[in-house]
Every structure is written in C-alpha cells, then in structure tokens.
Input
Amino acid sequence: MAKLRFQALQEVISRQPKEVIFPSNEVSDFFCMRVFDKPKMEKFLNREAYKSVIIAIDEGKAIDRKIAGQVAAGMKAWAVGMGATHYTHWFHPLTDGTAEKHDGFIEFGVSGNMIENFSGKLLAQQEPDASSFPSGGLRNTFEARGYTAWDVSSPAFIVDTTLCIPTVFVSYTGEALDYKAPLLKAMNSIDKAAVDVCQYFDKNVTKVIVTLGWEQEYFLIDDALYNSRPDLILTGRTLMGHQSSKDQQLDDHYFGSIPERVASFMKDFEIEAYKLGIPVKTRHNEVAPNQFECAPIFEEANLSNDHNQLVMDIMKRVAQRHNFRVLFHEKPFAGINGSGKHNNWSLATNTGINLLSPGKNPKGNLQFLSFLVNVVKAVYDNQDLIRASILTAGNSHRLGANEAPPSIISVFLGSQLTTILDEIVEKVTNRKMTPDEKTELKLGIGKIPEILLDNTDRNRTSPFAFTGNRFEFRAVGSSANCSNAMIALNSVLANQLKEFKTDVDTLIDKGTGKDEAIFQVLKKYILVSEKIRFEGDGYSEEWKKEAEKRGLTNIISVPVSISKYLTKQSRKVLIGNGIFAEKELEGRVEVEYEKFTKKMQIEARVLGDLAINHIVPTAITYQNTLIRNVQGLKDIFTISEFKELASVRIEHIKEISLHVSAIKQQVKDMIDARKKANLIGDVKEKAFEYEKNVRFYFDKIRYHIDKLELTVDNEIWPLPKYRELLFSR
Ligand code: ADP
Ligand code: MG
Output
C-alpha cells in the first residue's frame, strides 16, 4: 500500500498543465452553442410551435400536446445536426446529483428498417423505471413508474452526444419525486404572494421571479492521490489524517495566484459551461489549500439551479482530463475550512425592479422595506425549517466549525439598515407620522446599498446576510442541490407576504391610509422579529450564549433538524402554500433520514475497514521493527547500558500497542452498535440511533489513527497524508 502512495506522489510530480485554448476570444461566439435556446427555436420550429413554446415559457405552463410533435421534430433536427445520437430526460432525483437514462433516437420503421425517431410524446412525458430512486415509501415498487415531463422554463441542451431535456419527475400517482417540481411550486407561490404586495406600490407589476446566484466552493485533488485514499473515493471525505504542520494559518492561499494546472482546468470547464449557456464569471482560490470557488452571474432560480447541477457534473468530468478530482463534500479535510455554496437570493419584477434593492425613489423604498422586513420575519418564524433545508450529514461538519456560521440561524442587515429599522419603530408610534417624516425615512434608505455592495460593512460570519441588493444564504452545503434551500426560503417568504397583505388590508379596511398601514405593520414585524437580527461575530462563543438567551434554536443533530420539516409551523408553510401534499412532505422527510443513515453506515464501514486492514497492520509492522531493535540493543550492550538506552523505545512500543488496542476495541464496539442500529425498522428511529451510537465512534477511532500517523515510519504509511493531498501538485 505504501508503494501506491509513493507511486502516486511520483505521478503528481511529473504532471504538466494541459494547454487549453478558448474557441474564440469573444465568449459570445460560442455561448449557448449547445443549448436549444430561443434563437434556435425560432430557426428550427415553425411559427405555431415557436409561439406556443414561448407562451408556455412566459406563463410557466406545460406545452400543448398538439404541438409537442412539432417541437420534438425541431429539437431533434437541431440536436442531430449538432452530432447528438441519444436523448435523455434529465432530472433531479432526491439523491445527490442528477439522473439521466439515455435512449437512442433510433426506432424500427413499419417495414423493419431503422429510422430516427423522437416523438412529441417522448418530449412531453417519459416513464423511467423509478424503483431505484429514493421516494420515502411514496411509490410502491410494483408500480415502479415515475413520469418525467419537460420543464419548458429550462431549455434543452447537449452534453457530449446526448440531447438532455430538463424535466420534473413525479410518481405514478402524481407525487413529486424530485427537487424541481416543488421548487417550481414554491416559485409560483412567491410569484402570486409578491405580486399582490407589489400592487400596493405599482400596478404594473404582474410577475415576480426569484433570482439566484450561487457561489460554488470545491477542492481539487490529484487523481493519483485520490485513488490511493479509499475514504475519499467511497465517502467523499477523509475519515482520518493528521493535520498538516502548515495548512491555512498563513492565509496565503485565499485570492492567491491560481496554479497553472488548476487554471487550465478552470478554463476548460468554463468553455464547456459557456457552450451550455452557464454564465460563469468569477474564479478564485479559497481559504484552504487546494480549495477554489466558481460563481456565475445570477439567473432565474430554477434555471440557475439547473446550471449549478450541470456545472458540478461538468467539473467532475473535465477534472479527469486534467488528472484532478473535484471534491464537493462539505468537509473533506478535518481542521481546515470546508466548502459551502452561498445562495445569493432576491426577487425581481416584470418591470425590471429588484425588490431587495433600495434606491433613490421614496415610493420604491417603502416597497423595498416591506420585502426586507418580511424576509427578516419569515426567517425568524421559520429558523428550524430553514436550517432543516441545509443541515445534512456532510454539512454538519462545517456548520459551527470556526469557518462557517454556527447552526444558529440569524440575519445580518448592516448598521445603516439597522438604524433605519430602529427609526421606524421609534417614529411609528400610535400617532400618525407626518408626510415629511415618511419621506425622510424612505429617502434615508437610498443611501444604504453603496456601502454594503462595496463590501466594507459586510459581515462574513452571518449565515444569512443582506449584501446591498440581495440576501446571501451562506449555510448551504457545497454538495447540496440549491432547491432545498430555495424551496424553504421562497415558501416561508410567500407565506409571510400573504400574512403581511392580510394585516395591511385589515388596517386599510378600518380606514388607515395605505402608507400608514404598511408602516404600522412593519413596525410590529420589526419588533417581533428583532431577536433574529445579529450584527456581531457569528463564529464566537459569546454568540452561542447570547442566542440561547434570545431563545433562538441551535440544532447540531442532523436527525433532530430533519424532524423540523414536520412541525406545525413547517407544515403550515409547506403544505398550506401547496408546495407539498402531506404525503409528499412525509415521504421527503423519510428520504432525508434514510440518506443520513446510509451515509453514516458507509462511513462506519469504510472507517472500520481502513482501521483494521490498513492502519493496524502498518502499526504492527513498525512496532515489530522497534521490538527487533530493542532485542538487538540487548544483545550488544550491558544490562545497565541497555536499561538506560531502551526505556524510551519500550515506551514507544507500549504507546503503539495502546493505540492499536484502542482502535481494535472501538472498531468492534462500532460494528456492534451498527448491527444493533440495523435491526431498527423505523427510519427516523434508526437515523437517531446512528447519530447517537455509531457516529459517536468516528472521532474516537480517528484520534488513535492520527496519533499513529505521527509516530509510524513515514516509509510504510499507506495513505497519502494531509500535506500531500493539500500541497502536492
Ligand atoms: P461575493 O463574493 O462578494 O459575495 P460574488 O461575485 O462571488 O460576490 O458572488 C455574488 C453572487 O451574487 C453572484 O453570483 C451574483 O450574480 C449574485 N447576485 C448579484 N445580484 C443578485 C440578485 N439580485 N439576485 C441573486 N443573485 C445576485
Ligand atoms: Mg458571496
């Protein structure tokens, strides 16, 4: 095994950066080249089909079955012209990643000859065998059929030689089995609720869309080193490994110059991304060694999320051309920063207004304030649901690990906005505000954005920060599908906006003027949700104490967090607003528990195997060398000389023995605990059992392995060490 490690290191040393050349200096020359976008639809579809697809896109409806045939024919003509031979319905099942089943365009014609076919029926609806996707008991295996149907709001694209059609995935009986269907529902729900509120300010607003700009963090590890770490291969993270003497202490990686091999990889995947219409814009080094980030220009949330999933897929593929592996796990290495996926989130109207952007005009600013305050209140009322949307097995290592916000949800607004909210509370007493006071307040808001956008007043430790014209939800995990977070945020805001409308209308009905009514309701909301606002250091111990005093929740257990999907409040938001049916929500929660349990189960197995098959034998081999050494000393020295010389060495032998025995015992206990947990039938109970009694051993066992790593001969240590994984290139 140690041979493998040294071979891998040799390979890494010999690597050269690959030359990558942009197809053209002008990205616009090849941007969207592989996307069936509107200009291509116009070219390949007849007028009727084109118009009908555009209407379907604009109104968020399914395409008319009657024209599906024409659309399919046009899409196929374009795809075949681009070299495509297969097509697939591309969807987001409840696993990590996306799914696809490729079918050839070919079919037998009536006379038995081979023809290329792709009918409208196939475009609109397909029935993949769904029995092996997680569904939380929603779908009996004997009706192992799920339907997929084209999501027209996300255009088809070609990867390699396959035409991919973004689709929703629902069960035979109509329950959503994916992330896309509920995301679309949540966005629909916020569209309605937000338009209603916008109507107070501007009658021209008839549609509100959600905007999302994700920032994707990841690690790059050399292929050869990756392949000598079974834990990375099987679990996505290192289950053992002593900290490197140097890692990120010197802050010399962040925004440092990008290594050449890495830059080639970045260029290469960016080219692919551009061809697929993904507007990737920013690339830089992150805090930890070998950690990087990529971020696009924001887009409509559903499309942006498709693009995020697609980019992750492309990155994995392109990385291999450069002998790299991309790690999307939230915490691949203990002791240094993990990876997140900041979700920059806002709402935009059909009139071109960003609803979370304050401006110069007082009327717009009351609208901005209304949305801002409603977001704060929605987050306050739904901390647990918001956390549940992001707290996974992987992300649980990251939250609260001195690099990421804790498991306490709080909102950062910046000092200026905080002052404005305080002013509202103060000014909107029971008396009416004078028109001047109102204008003054609204005008004051216009000064805020520059400062926040300028980064000077930003708080990097907040899980949910206002950043000048959007909120940035930073607690999302790097491997996550953004949908979970987006479903939660948009549903809680939709629910809140409805409540706001009711409260304001009630006052208006009683004769209060519109602006006055809005100010009064905002004042009430500002006061009740005050506790969620926090401007200080979110990583500090004091905040944990303070948050507890404020009654904010701090949940670190994944199963406990998952259970919060089913509280009365969460049900009210998710079921009450039509995002999930009762059964769907329960099914989804079951899937989450199962996913957690399975990840723990796999990690426990891999850890046990590595400990017993790799580490213990290596430690014993080294210990035998020491024993032989001591025996030799005994042969050539006098007893008293020997005693003096050998005592430290004998201690060393004992120390190795202690670690080896501890590992063996704890692995045995962990296996027993696992066996016991596996007997539990109930998925929820099992997840709790795994968290409490199996996961419990991971750090304990690791502790002894990491100690051995420090003491055993480097020449025989089987696994690449942290310094090699993080610094060899
Ligand atoms: P920073 O590191 O300062 O947070 P980045 O440029 O890395 O900034 O990422 C900011 C992200 O926020 C980008 O994806 C950007 O497109 C996105 N963004 C900007 N405005 C909005 C908006 N109105 N809605 C959603 N996302 C936005
Ligand atoms: Mg950011």
